[in-house]
Structure to design on (695 residues):
């Protein structure tokens, strides 16, 4: 509307006068006075204009209206296929019309018919334009330009085009082919979408893409649009099961996103709303398989959030309800595929429950839960022994079991369990050698194997395991160089390698590994600059790098890296102010900085920095009072601060902080009574306090 449209009409009028003159007809103002009084005088002008051009030109304009952009080659192709004469002279004349725009962004020689004319042409359903769309769809498929082909498919049959767009876009996101995503997004705005349900599908896919790239605001916007579209689809058809199911999936994804940004109340509300969407179906059809299956997934998400917030009792209930939902779904399965889905998802829910129990040091319950999960995955593998997802999920479960054995100092057993996981990943990779998720998982297990060799004093085996891990991540990155998950994992493996080199007294090599890790994290952050987990990992690598500089007495570099680590954690907390792991880790960096200040005899600064680190742990504990890591770290910082105060002769203050350390560790041991390390710290500190009182 507005000035653009009227300027366009004057341009068309000028074209019309010139074309008529070329045909020997002189038009005057009176000819234009006879224009009907409508909102769309352009349509009349275009028809009049095309009356004065020859037939070939008229056909060409209709055919070119089908193109999103055209050049001489495409014009010639259309002419040959659709039987109009396509000469260079006609092309030059055509591209001088005011309704033909130059497309500089496509490069030299590309043009486009004005959108208004293309819309009018589409509304008129010109046969020539339809034939052009069919030809162009075929042409772009041969050129392997999927996005352009989909645009033309959509113009011929809108639904076919929309469904293909969603499928192509989801696949591109899954395989981290982000350049392809951009070309699909470019045509997205020009697609005709005549159903609320399919509009919901498209917004849902876009939301998943933005979430993958940590473009949180855009992801949230798309998810909200998808929910609105599904609600609209439900108005005329309140029993539209597919709309309910998809609405639930989007609500769950939205909730997961909000939790990532530490919008906990909103996130919990979205996850609860997802569960309610499935319950609405189940109240009508209690045995509806898809509703039970997806309800289980939403309950697992809810459990993860509650566990993250240390709402332990609630988390336990949510995981249990998820397991129950899958147990209910099993008998409703119509075929082998549904049986496989339900068994696999039940295994996943049990895995999460087991991890939760392991984190609380409920070791026996965790082992029992892991065994039940293995049974569920085995049941799924009975349906299809080579199913890629089930093999990978069972492998990841065995990794968790190995981690638990490792934490219980059963390192030989852990390595055996990890090896079984590797065998499963290899079996999966035989089915699908290019599956990046499986390569990633295999790399993660090699990292865990490396960690288990350290307490067995087998550093060479650990070194080989870390190199195997890096090789597995490189395999994934060969196929999808922009896969942020693989980049993140490779960064973690390089950091672990650095830690091993520190243990082997190779600080220079360690510095090199840490620097490589930071470079890899930065590469991932090019795509996802706000990704809170990758930023956190980068900050941890910076902290380790600072530590290595401190070990080499390179104090200035050490301070610089510690400060950069603190700044990076602050960047995380700007995105997610309540991200308790980042708050806790920021406290850890400050504690390391304080230790360095003590060694440089900067006592007053060290006292301040220790206090700052303790207040970081307190912030984490304010949000989740039972957060074990923060309790343990707070105890360490209090004890070290007390040591410094004792050295400086500040006895009452030292005593106060020693007692605070004991209190933190006592609380931690109430939550995880089997943690031997913390018990040792507590015993040593009690012995020290006994000595002090006897002195």
């Amino acid at each position: 509307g507005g000035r653009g449209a009227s300027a366009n009409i004057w341009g068309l009028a000028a074209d019309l006068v010139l074309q008529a003159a070329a045909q020997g007809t002189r038009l005057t103002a009176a000819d234009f006075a006879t224009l009907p009084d409508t909102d769309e005088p352009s349509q009349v002008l275009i028809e009049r204009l095309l009356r004065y051009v020859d037939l070939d030109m008229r056909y060409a304009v209709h055919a070119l209206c089908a193109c999103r952009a055209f050049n001489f080659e495409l014009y010639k192709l259309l002419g040959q296929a659709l039987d109009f004469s396509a000469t260079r002279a006609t092309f030059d004349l055509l591209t001088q019309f005011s309704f033909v725009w130059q497309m500089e962004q496509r490069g030299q020689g590309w043009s486009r018919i004005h959108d208004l004319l293309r819309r009018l042409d589409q509304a008129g359903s010109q046969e020539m334009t339809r034939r052009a769309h069919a030809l162009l769809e075929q042409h772009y498929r041969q050129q392997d330009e999927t996005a352009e082909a989909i645009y033309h498919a959509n113009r011929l049959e809108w639904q076919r085009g929309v469904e293909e767009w969603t499928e192509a876009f989801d696949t591109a996101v899954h395989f981290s082919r982000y350049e392809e995503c951009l070309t699909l997004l470019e045509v997205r705005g020009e697609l005709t979408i005549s159903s609320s349900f399919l509009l919901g599908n498209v917004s849902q896919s876009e939301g998943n893409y933005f979430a993958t790239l940590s473009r949180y605001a855009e992801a949230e916007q798309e998810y909200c649009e998808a929910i609105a579209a599904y609600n609209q689809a439900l108005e005329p058809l309140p029993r539209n099961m597919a709309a309910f199911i998809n609405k639930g999936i989007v609500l769950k994804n939205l909730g997961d996103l909000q939790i990532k940004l530490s919008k906990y109340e909103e996130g919990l509300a979205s996850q609860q709303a997802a569960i309610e969407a499935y319950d609405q179906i189940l109240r009508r059809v209690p045995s509806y398989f898809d509703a039970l299956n997806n309800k289980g997934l939403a309950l697992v998400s809810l459990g993860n959030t509650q566990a993250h917030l240390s709402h332990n009792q609630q988390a336990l209930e949510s995981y249990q309800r998820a397991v129950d939902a899958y147990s209910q779904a099993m008998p409703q399965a119509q075929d082998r595929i549904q049986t496989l889905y339900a068994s696999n998802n039940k295994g996943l829910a049990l895995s999460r429950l087991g991890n939760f129990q392991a984190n609380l040091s409920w070791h026996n319950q965790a082992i029992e839960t892991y065994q039940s999960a293995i049974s569920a995955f085995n049941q799924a593998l009975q349906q299809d022994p080579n199913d890629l997802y089930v093999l990978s999920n069972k492998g990841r479960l065995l990794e968790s079991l190995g981690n638990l054995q490792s934490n219980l100092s059963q390192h030989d057993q852990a390595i055996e369990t990890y090896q079984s996981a590797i065998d499963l990943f290899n079996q999966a990779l035989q089915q699908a050698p290019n599956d990046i998720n499986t390569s990633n998982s295999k790399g993660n297990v090699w990292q865990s194997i490396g960690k288990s060799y350290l307490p067995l004093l087998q550093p060479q085996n650990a070194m080989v395991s870390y190199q195997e891990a890096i090789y597995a991540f490189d395999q994934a990155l060969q196929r999808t160089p922009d896969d942020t998950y693989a980049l993140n994992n490779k960064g973690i493996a390089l950091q672990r390698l650095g830690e091993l080199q520190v243990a082997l007294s190779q600080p220079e090599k360690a510095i090199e590994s840490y620097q490589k890790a930071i470079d890899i994290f930065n590469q991932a952050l090019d795509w996802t600059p706000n990704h809170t987990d990758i930023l956190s990992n980068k900050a941890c690598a910076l902290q380790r790098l600072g530590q290595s500089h401190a070990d080499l007495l390179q104090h200035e570099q050490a301070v610089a890296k510690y400060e950069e680590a603190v700044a990076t954690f602050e960047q995380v907390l700007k995105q997610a102010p309540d991200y308790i792991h980042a708050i806790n880790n920021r406290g850890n960096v400050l504690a390391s900085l304080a230790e360095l200040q003590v060694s440089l005899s900067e006592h007053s600064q060290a006292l301040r920095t220790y206090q700052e680190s303790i207040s970081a742990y307190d912030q984490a504990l304010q949000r989740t009072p039972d957060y074990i890591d923060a309790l343990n770290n707070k105890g360490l910082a209090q004890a070290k601060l007390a040591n410094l105060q004792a050295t400086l002769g500040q006895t009452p203050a030292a005593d106060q902080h020693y007692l605070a350390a004991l209190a933190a560790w006592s609380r931690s041991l109430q939550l995880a009574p089997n943690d031997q390390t913390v018990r040792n710290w507590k015993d040593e500190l009690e012995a020290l306090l006994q000595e002090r009182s006897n002195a």
Observations:
- The chain has a mean pLDDT of 89.
- Strands lie at 100-102, 111-113.
- Residues 255 and 267 are 4 Å apart (CA to CA).
- Residues 336-359 form the longest helix (24 residues).
